[in-house]
C-alpha cells in the first residue's frame, strides 16, 4: 500500500481504510453475534437453520457449512471495512483444516477481510489420514474424494499450513479500481463465433 499509494491510509470505494493500526481480530461466532446481530449455538443445526431462514437464507438445499458461509457473507462481511481477521471457524467450514486442540468443534483457520471483501484464507492442514478420510466422506461427494491425497497422508505429512491471498482484490484495493476487469492481466474474453 505504501509503495503503490504512498500511505498506509488509503481510500477505496469512498471508504477510508487504515492499514497502519492493529488489525481487529474476532472469532467467527463473535462476528456473527456482535457484527451480524445473530446469536445462535453453532452446534445446534435446527436452531441454526431457523435463524438462517429468519435472515432470508433459503436453507432447504444447503449444508451446514453453506448456511454458515451465507450468514457470514450476508450479515458480517459487508461491515468489515477496516482490516479484520476472523478466526476459530466451525470445523464444517473447512474439511481440510486441523481441529483446535482445546475445542474440536473449531478449526485452526482464519480469513482476512478488508473493504467488505475476503482477501485471504489460511489454515493449518489436517495431516491425520484417518480423520481426513472421515471428514471427506462426511462433507464431500464420494466421487470427488482424492484417494491419492489420502494415501499420501498415510505416508506422513509434517505440520503444514497454507495461505491463499486474493491478489486481484488486493490490486483493486491498492489501485482504487472499481472493477476486477481493470486489474486482471489477461481477462476472459467473449468468444468470437464469426471468424
From TrEMBL:
PROSITE patterns: AA_TRNA_LIGASE_II (PS50862). One of its GO terms (molecular function) is ATP binding. Residues 59-191 form the Aminoacyl-transfer RNA synthetases class-II family profile domain. The keyword ATP-binding applies. Pfam families: tRNA-synt_2. Keywords: ATP-binding, Ligase, Nucleotide-binding. GO terms for cellular component: cytosol. GO terms for biological process: lysyl-tRNA aminoacylation. It comes from the Bacteria. The keyword Nucleotide-binding applies. This is Lysine--tRNA ligase. It comes from Aerophobetes bacterium.
Amino acid at each position: 500500500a505504501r509503495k503503490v499509494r504512498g500511505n498506509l491510509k488509503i481510500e477505496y470505494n469512498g471508504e477510508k481504510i487504515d492499514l497502519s493500526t492493529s488489525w481487529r481480530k474476532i472469532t467467527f461466532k463473535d462476528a456473527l453475534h456482535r457484527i451480524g446481530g445473530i446469536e445462535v449455538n453453532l452446534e445446534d443445526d435446527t436452531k441454526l437453520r431457523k435463524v438462517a431462514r429468519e435472515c432470508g437464507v433459503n436453507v432447504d438445499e444447503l449444508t451446514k457449512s453453506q448456511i454458515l458461509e451465507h450468514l457470514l457473507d450476508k450479515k458480517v462481511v459487508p461491515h468489515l471495512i477496516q482490516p479484520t481477521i476472523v478466526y476459530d471457524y466451525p470445523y464444517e467450514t473447512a474439511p481440510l483444516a486441523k481441529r483446535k486442540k482445546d475445542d474440536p468443534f473449531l478449526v485452526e483457520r482464519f480469513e482476512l477481510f478488508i473493504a467488505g471483501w475476503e482477501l485471504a484464507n489460511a489454515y493449518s492442514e489436517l495431516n491425520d489420514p484417518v480423520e481426513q478420510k472421515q471428514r471427506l466422506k462426511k462433507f464431500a461427494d464420494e466421487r470427488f474424494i482424492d484417494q491419492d491425497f489420502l494415501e499420501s497422508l498415510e505416508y506422513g505429512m509434517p505440520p503444514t499450513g497454507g495461505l491463499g491471498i486474493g491478489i486481484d482484490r488486493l490490486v483493486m484495493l491498492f489501485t482504487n479500481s472499481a472493477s476486477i476487469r481493470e486489474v486482471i492481466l489477461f481477462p476472459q474474453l467473449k468468444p468470437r463465433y464469426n471468424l
